[in-house]
Design goal:
heterotrimer; A mainly alpha; B mainly alpha; C alpha/beta; B: 5 helices; 60% helix; elongated; C: Alpha-Beta Plaits; six-stranded mixed β-sheet
Chain lengths: 229, 124, 291
């Protein structure tokens, strides 16, 4: 399995430099933005690397070659999950290095600081993202998975708000008791979270992400076992 | 040792090998106890299949021309000198018969043929 | 069932697709020999090979490699066999050296010295990127990998497609060297390349997903014959001797399955020629289309 991760890293040699540049740029551009902007940039760089690796597999139909080697299909699946976190770690290390270099040499370049909080946020977001994407990829292959990904993206950011908005209107606006109940529940959840320490919240999210990812991996393994080339 | 395979010949390839090897043995080009190339090397060199060379060797073995020692390869059989001589006589007989047939087909007289034979013998 | 004499056994293999089916495919390749797997495009050659490699899931039937079930012992089997595909499936961006670095750790018996020697023998520069290699070079790179992990069974899908005669002749040489070791076997598919067929010990012929024949090549070539003669020799009865017949204004040419029988009928009247595998394939495919 580690061989497969190493393989992806070898293939990404050139892309790694590109993403380093990207991270530096992101640190500069997003320096003043609050909240998740930096986490999003980390996720973006990691996602870029992941897609790059998948593109390489797809371009030469190399899965045919890989699956003819003495290795288990499950290793191919698990290696993909694992490698994403390696990319994430590389990107984060890149960020930290850039920060240290800037602060030590004292380059007068204002950059954002990545905190533990943001790192956790990025990792959780990445876990959720691949938990949704990989089962689709292992079921339908690269090309169709990219298409489905696109559709899902559009659905989330364009159609879903539209549909929700319309539904709310249909039901007589936010004054409807059903909505008031939902809002109340959310408020309660928030209140409860307020009582928890930061590290506890982080743990909850990490645990949730891990459960989601385990389920996703199970699904991917099952799909890939039956994949035909 | 030369073996020439004619792909266009109607004679099966294994048969071509058998015939040529027999000739080599009878002519004494391949001598007693001399190691023969393995069937796989022969197949590689002649660019033919292993089954073909294997069959040729089996045929030669059956007729007593060669022997195969497990693990050591194939060798020309140690043969009785008289038997070998007789075999050679038979080859000469065959060739002379061939000449006679050719002469007859060409319409040569018996005396004419004998004269030619003597002349050739003396020239040698 | 364990059979050690046969390095590859395919038994009643069946696979259905929407528009094509592989039906009851059976054949066996004895250890130490070369089998050519011939048939027209789309006849099921690649499907069979992919099923052997477990790239496709079979519907039914059995595949044994080295006497072991190909699914149950997939890793053990793949450690001892090698493959060459008609297209390149290596990562084009990588150099030969890097690609080998990726592949080597997967094999239990990888021999770096052998690999280096192969690169030298085949005149492959390890620093070159795979996309810069010619088709023949890519094939030789695949073979270098095959030879470097001590593969006993080499499976090749259309290895000569797109190769020039020089590269084909080199391939022939490498294969002949490989089977100098009598434990090694080669199974290759082709839609007929006379040079490669020369070294095939066995021939399996597939058409429309079904095996037409599978036998030693010499037996096939000795039994079949091509008959040429004038059209008036053909009547209903004699036509039945033929697998397929092609007629033109000046005569006919046809393939017979039993040369001796045909000879008894046509002796002195028609010409008998040695068939090529191509003849056998063409007449069989065409003959079936006529029926």
């Amino acid at each position: 399995m580690l061989n497969l991760v190493r393989k992806d890293l070898l293939l990404l040699k050139r892309s790694l430099w590109l993403s380093a540049l990207y991270v530096l740029l992101a640190l500069f551009v997003f320096r003043t933005m609050s909240g998740g902007a930096l986490s999003a940039a980390t996720v973006g760089a990691t996602y870029m690397l992941m897609i790059q690796a998948l593109t390489q597999d797809d371009k030469n139909k190399s899965e045919i070659m890989l699956n003819s080697l003495p290795l288990r299909r499950q290793d191919i699946v698990l290696a993909k999950y694992l490698s994403v976190f390696i990319y994430a770690i590389l990107v984060i290390i890149g960020c930290l290095l850039a920060q240290s270099v800037v602060s030590i040499i004292g380059i007068p370049m204002p950059i954002g600081w990545i905190s533990l909080e943001k790192i956790t946020g990025a990792l959780v977001a990445m876990a959720v993202l691949i938990s949704i994407y990989f089962p689709i990829y292992f079921k339908f292959g690269y090309l169709r998975s990219r298409m489905i990904g696109m559709i899902l993206f559009l659905a989330c950011f364009l159609f879903l708000p539209m549909v929700v908005g319309l539904t709310v209107q249909e039901l007589g606006g936010v004054g409807n008791p059903a909505f008031r109940n939902i809002l109340a529940m959310l408020q309660e959840a928030e209140n409860w979270l307020q009582t928890q320490a930061d590290w506890q919240i982080a743990t909850y999210f990490l645990a949730l992400a891990l459960i989601l990812m385990a389920a996703s991996a199970r699904l991917s393994l099952e799909f890939y076992r039956r994949r035909e080339f | 040792m030369n073996i020439i395979i004619a792909n266009s010949s109607p004679e099966p390839i294994y048969q071509q090998i058998v015939t040529q090897m027999k000739n080599l043995i009878l002519k004494g080009d391949l001598t007693e106890a001399e190691g023969l190339p393995s069937i796989r090397i022969l197949a590689k060199e002649l660019q033919i299949s292993v089954i073909t060379t294997k069959r040729a060797y089996e045929e030669l073995e059956r007729e007593g021309y060669i022997e195969t020692v497990g693990g050591k390869g194939s060798f020309v059989s140690a043969q009785n000198k008289e038997l070998l001589y007789e075999k050679r006589l038979r080859v000469v007989e065959e060739k002379v018969t061939e000449a006679i047939v050719a002469a007859r087909n060409a319409g040569m007289e018996r005396e004419e043929l004998l004269a030619m034979f003597k002349l050739l013998l003396e020239e040698q | 069932m364990v059979d050690t004499d046969n390095i590859l056994t395919v038994n009643k293999l069946t696979k259905h697709f929407k528009d094509f089916s592989l039906k009851n495919v059976s054949f066996r390749l004895p250890r130490g020999y070369v089998m050519g797997f011939i048939g027209p495009n789309g006849s099921g050659k690649s499907t069979t090979i992919k099923l052997i490699l477990n790239l496709l899931c079979k519907d039914s039937g059995q595949i044994n490699v080295f006497g072991l079930d190909n699914l149950e012992h997939e890793l053990a089997i793949k450690n001892r066999m090698a493959f060459v595909f008609d297209e390149n499936h290596f990562y084009e961006e990588l150099s030969i050296r890097d690609m080998a670095r990726i592949i080597a750790p997967f094999y239990r018996h990888w021999e770096p010295q052998t690999f280096e020697k192969c690169l030298k023998d085949f005149v492959i520069n390890p620093k070159q990127k795979i996309k810069q290699l010619s088709k023949g070079m890519k094939m030789k790179f695949s073979l270098a990998i095959a030879l470097s992990h001590g593969a006993e069974l080499l499976i090749m899908d259309e290895p000569t497609a797109g190769l020039d005669p020089m590269a084909r002749s080199e391939l022939l040489d490498i294969l002949a060297t490989l089977i100098q070791d009598e434990r090694n076997s080669v199974f290759f598919s082709t839609h007929i390349t006379p040079d490669l067929d020369k070294i095939a010990d066995y021939v399996t012929f597939i058409n429309q997903g079904e095996i037409v024949l599978s036998a030693p090549k010499d037996d096939i070539l000795e039994k079949y014959g091509v008959i040429k003669g004038s059209c008036d020799l053909l009547d209903e009865e004699s036509k039945r001797l033929f697998v397929g017949i092609k007629t033109n204004q000046f005569g006919f040419e046809g393939l017979v399955r039993d040369k001796e029988k045909a000879l008894r009928r046509f002796r002195g009247l028609a010409l008998l020629e040695k068939p090529s595998l191509e003849d056998i394939m063409l007449y069989t495919v065409r003959g079936e289309h006529h029926a």
